Amino acid sequence: MPASQSSSAQQARQAIADRLREILLDSGLSARELARQAGWDETKCSRLVHARTPPSDSDIRQWCNICGAPEEIPNLIAASRNAKNAYLEWRRVQRSQRRLQELGLELYENNSLYRFYSSNLVPWPLQVPSYMRAVMQRFSDFHRAGNTDIEEGVKMRVARRRYLEDGTRRCFMVIEESVLRNRIFGDDIMREQLRYILKTMRQPNISLGVIPWMGRRDQHSSETFHIYGDVNVSIELTSAIVTITQPAEIELYVRCFEDLKAAAVHGPQARALVEAATAALP
Questions:
Q1: Are 264 and 213 in contact (CB under 8 A)?
Q2: Alpha-carbon gap, residue 187 to 120, rounded angstroms
Q3: Confidence band for 202, pLDDT divided at 50, 70 and 90
Q4: What is the largest CA-CA distance in the chain?
Q5: What is the pTM of this model?
Q6: For 248-271, how does the pLDDT look when each residue is reduced to its tens digit (9 = 90+)?
Q7: Do 280 and 178 touch, CB atoms closer than 8 A?
Q8: Model confidence over 135-165: pLDDT tens digits?
Q9: Average pLDDT for residues 101-105, to the nearest whole number?
Q10: Per the CB 3.0–4.6 Å rule, which of 42, 53, 154, 165 could disulfide with 35?
């Protein structure tokens, strides 16, 4: 599993670099001549075509215009921006909870199957507002973001539930038992949260599996990840969110999820673990 930048992001950057190289070859210009006309150091062309440096929008415009291929500009700029978003550092969006909550809206709208695995926090479909608020405040404090729109972020996250209320979408979640037992927030918050989990587990299009501390398993715990349909995986790292769209990588995460799901208990056994965690609170 990726621990840093996903190979999907690098593959996307390489595809852009390959296209820039093709445009240069088709133009008949040398890299030296292109650099001269663009006013660049000659080594910049080498860095761009070997994907060592991602091109800016301005770099793409100059490259294509000098090579006589202005029609390539819109598609290359769009592809370059998508590649940058494949590895999105939290610091780029951390100052606004509104922006953070908007990140996945298109995925929620366009997919009818969600699969979430979490090793540290209750997944968002099961979160109560007080838990959401505590998560956002903890994020803001850790990243020194100084968020002032946390309440707006909470309202937006609560509003996401509409995607699961009409029954047309299915959500499968797997969490570690430690998620139920973690004391990172206040006892009152956790009590309310655990009671809400028990209530939501009765919703027919929502499935929750809990991996017991002492249970047997074939798959070790992993970073938190969300699978949307069969087209996108979002992975939450400490410093960034990684988006995977390569089919081979998605298939690995689907397999990982199925292994984790097989190690989890469901139904009455899962409810028993939630009830035990509730009873353990002072």
A1: no
A2: 17
A3: very high
A4: 75
A5: 0.76
A6: 788 999 999 999 999 999 999 999
A7: no
A8: 999 999 998 988 889 999 999 999 999 999 9
A9: 81
A10: 42
Choose among 271, 263, 231: nearest CA to 111: 231
Task: Please tell me the total number of residues recorded for the chain in this structure.
Answer: 282
- The letter for the amino acid at 167 is G
**For residues 17 and 48, is the Cβ–Cβ distance under 8 A?**
yes
Place of tokens 């949307």: 228
Domains and CATH numbers, the chain: 7-85 (1.10.260.40), 89-279 (3.30.870.10)
Q: What pLDDT is recorded for position 5?
A: 45
CB contact at 8 A, 74 and 99:
no
* 47-55 LR contacts (CB < 8 Å, sep 24+): 48/17, 48/20, 49/17, 49/18, 49/20, 49/21, 49/24, 50/17, 51/10, 51/13, 51/14, 51/16, 51/17, 54/13, 54/16, 54/80, 54/83, 54/84, 55/16, 55/20, 55/80
Kind plus residue range of the DSSP H or E element containing 83: helix 73-85
The confidence score (pLDDT) of residue 214 equals 87
Contact 90, 19 (CB under 8 A): no
Pairing of strands 225-228, 232-236: antiparallel
